[in-house]
Write a sequence for this structure.
């Protein structure tokens, strides 16, 4: 029953900004770590950023200083603010979360469907 739905993708020029959102829905007890992944055509999916429930963040080196991951636990939502976008940021971005439902004994990894980010001049 849990769903992760991403939004905020689109087409931007190099140097532009986008903010991605990912909202989880369902009978959620708690969400632990959340993260953003991306996959460009012909490339492996890579981890972009993670955030713990307490707010500890980590980023892949290529986005440090440009991207900011944050979360609103009350809204079960994670965000990815992307600034100074580069063409190499073009990919489908997926959010992921460790979600524990009220009916679960443990959290389970959950993935969204992805949102396209295209950076092109």
């Amino acid at each position: 029953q849990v769903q992760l739905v991403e939004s905020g993708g689109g087409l931007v020029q190099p140097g532009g900004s986008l903010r991605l959102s990912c909202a989880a829905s369902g009978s959620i007890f708690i969400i632990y770590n959340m993260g953003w992944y991306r996959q460009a055509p012909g490339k492996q999916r890579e981890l972009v950023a993670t955030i713990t429930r307490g707010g500890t963040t980590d980023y892949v080196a290529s986005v440090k200083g440009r991207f900011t991951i944050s979360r609103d636990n009350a809204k079960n939502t994670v965000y990815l603010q992307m600034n100074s976008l580069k063409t190499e940021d073009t990919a489908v971005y997926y959010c992921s979360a460790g979600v524990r439902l009220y009916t679960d004994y443990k959290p389970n990894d959950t993935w969204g469907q992805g949102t396209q980010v295209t950076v092109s001049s």
